[in-house]
Amino acid sequence: MADHENKSVFLHAADLHLGAPLQSLGTRVSEEVRANALLRSQKAFENLIDLAITEEVAFVVLSGDIYDKADRDPAARRRVLKGLRRLHESGIPVFIAHGNHDPLTASAMGAELPDNVVVFPSNEVGVHEVLLPNGVTVTIAGISYSSSEETRRLVENFKLVNGQSIVGVLHTNVGGVSAHGNYAPSSVQELENSPVHYWALGHIHDRQVSATTKGWWAYPGNLQGRSTKTTECGPKGVLLVPIDSDGRFEEPQFRPCDVMRFERCSVDLSAVTDDATVYDRVSDALDKLVDAADSRPVFVRLEFTGATPIASVLNSRWDAFALEIIEESSEVLGPGAIVKIDRSYRPAIDLRDERERETLLGAVLRRLDSDAELTGNPELREEIERTLATALGGDR
């Protein structure tokens, strides 16, 4: 139970993408593992609801892309209604803005929503007030998308909102981040210049919390990772935002709600001289990811890097080697799996052997050996050879 005697807390979530098919697991994962992962992914929203009730939050804000598609998945819709009704039974209001994946249309508004739920309109900013247990009145203002490609600069619609403590709910691309569609574009300056004290944003899957002169703007990130894309990796969940008795928003605190993790794992083969020992390094790296995931299944994109003397050996039997790594890793990953393996390693170059070859590098090395200035300056020569060895991944 949370102690709200002097402060209240609300929950900020976005980019739930309920109904997403998890196609990103690729072809290396068995159908059993795939089905289990899809089933698990449906529990993340339930974790959000459980957290909101346990923490006795004053209200919940969902900042867009609750569903993965405008044509709401029926099973996902049922899960949402069940969760919203649980919040209604606990007396927790919910404020929803729709985004580019689930724009607000007449056919998708849903008359069956319980009374505790407010869906922000798409034609103007909707404004509502909530009296917190600590006596502060919070103004919650938001707007939904009317189409999947929202080009309006919706941030401008918040200019006339008034209140002591204002939460602005907006699905937007602050600064035009290239990895995401530039929908409802906005700038940091526009957020700063608005009357809003806490911007509850959605759309960017990377969790970001930034201070402003009035308070904060924040992306909680998506609720559940869906692939090994960088922005989908690591812990995923929601933000809990405290509000003190003077109506000031304190720094948002992350809480995980994900039921599985996607991670990227790099294994350096520079010092490996026997392909039979590669798995030991892989196992050690995977163990760390599993420990950090706190009993959640982990789905991994594995990358082998470095200049290694076993490059030719690995290349000659790559398909069999990759299959062995995947099979052996199942002992560590359990219900998780390796979903992709990247080859970024390269052959190691022995600078001593290279001196005997008729190559450009060999000529450079022989010139270093005969250069009078370098012969008389062993420290400089050592530095040059070290630089070459480092750049080429070789041995001096």
Helix content: 25-40%
How many distinct folded domains?
3
Distance between the termini: 62 Å
Helix and strand pattern? EHHEHEEEEEHEEEEEEHEEHHEEHHHH
Description:
This protein has 396 residues and is of the alpha/beta class. The chain has 3 domains: 7-256, Purple Acid Phosphatase, chain A, domain 2; 261-347, no CATH class; 351-392, no CATH class. The chain is 29% helix and 22% strand. The protein has 11 helices and 17 strands. The protein has helices spanning 31-41, 44-54, 74-89, 188-193, 278-292, 311-316, 318-333, 351-354, 360-370, 372-375, 378-392; strands at 7-13, 60-63, 94-97, 117-119, 126-131, 137-142, 165-171, 198-202, 208-211, 216-219, 237-244, 253-256, 261-268, 298-305, 307-308, 337-343, 346-347. Helix 2 (44-54) runs parallel beside helix 3 (74-89) and helix 5 packs parallel to helix 7 (318-333). The protein is elongated and about 80 Å long.
Key terms:
single chain; 396 residues; alpha/beta; Purple Acid Phosphatase, chain A, domain 2; six-stranded mixed β-sheet; 29% helix; elongated
In short:
With about 400 residues, this protein is an alpha/beta fold. About 30% of the residues lie in helices and about 20% in strands.
